[in-house]
Amino acid sequence: xxxxxxxxxxxxxxxxxxxxxxxxxxxxxxxxxxxxxxxxxxxxxxxxxxxxxxxxxxxxxxxxxxxxxxxxxxxxxxxxxxxxxxxxxxxxxxxxxxxxxxxxxxxxxxxxxxxxxxxxxxxxxxxxxxxxxxxxxxxxxxxxxxxxxxxx
Length: 152
Known about the structure:
Layout: E1 2-7, E2 16-21, H1 35-44, H2 47-53, E3 63-67, E4 75-80, H3 90-106, E5 111-114, H4 126-139, E6 145-151
Parallel strand pairs: 1-6, 2-4, 2-5, 5-6
Antiparallel strand pairs: 3-4
Helix pairs in contact: 3-4
C-alpha cells in the first residue's frame, strides 16, 4: 500500500527509512547537515554515517544499507540521489527507488518511508519525484507498505 504524509522521515514507524544521500565523495563529518540527511544525523547519531563510509563511492541511483543508530526503525537505506555536480534527475530518482526497493525485498522489510528523493538540493520538482517514486513502487514486486514523507 502507498501512503503520503507530511512530517519528518525519522519519526515514521517503519522497518526502514530511505536517506536521500550523495555519491559519498566527501566524508560525512565534513558535510553540513541539511534536509533529510541532517534530520537523520541529528536524531540517529553518527553511527549510520560511519557505516556508510565503508560503501566507498556510490554511483548515482545505487543504494547501501546501514543500521539505524538511535532511530526506532531497523535500518537506513541510503540512496545516491545526487551526481558529482550535486544535482539529481528523474532517471536518478527512478534508479534510487528501484535500488531501495531491492534492498527492502532482500532484507524482508515490511514497511518503508521515502523522502521526496532529489527534490531538495537535487533540483527535481516535488511533483515529478513523487510521480516517479509512486510509479516505480506500483510496478515493483515489493508488497509492503510505503509512505512518502513530505518534509515539514
